[in-house]
Design the sequence.
């Protein structure tokens, strides 16, 4: 998974579930934040960018129980 956000100081991928999984992204020299996952099935996610929830452009979205949306990754 990757997110281009050169202005960000911190990016965490949050996989929605019970419990939520938080995975710190690593920034490369171009400002792209990357996370390597061992997920093989569908999952819902969003990012925390500089401690604020951020939903990137994504093809599939789902409304959650907290009044917000999550992206849906479906392989």
Sequence:
């Amino acid at each position: 998974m990757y997110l281009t956000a050169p202005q960000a100081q911190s990016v965490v991928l949050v996989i929605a579930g019970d419990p939520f999984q938080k995975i710190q992204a690593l920034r490369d020299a171009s400002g792209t934040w990357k996370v390597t996952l061992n997920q093989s099935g569908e999952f819902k996610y969003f990012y925390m960018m500089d401690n604020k929830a951020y939903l990137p452009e994504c093809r599939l979205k789902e409304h959650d129980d907290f009044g917000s949306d999550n992206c849906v990754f479906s392989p």
Remarks:
- The chain is about 0% helix and 50% strand.
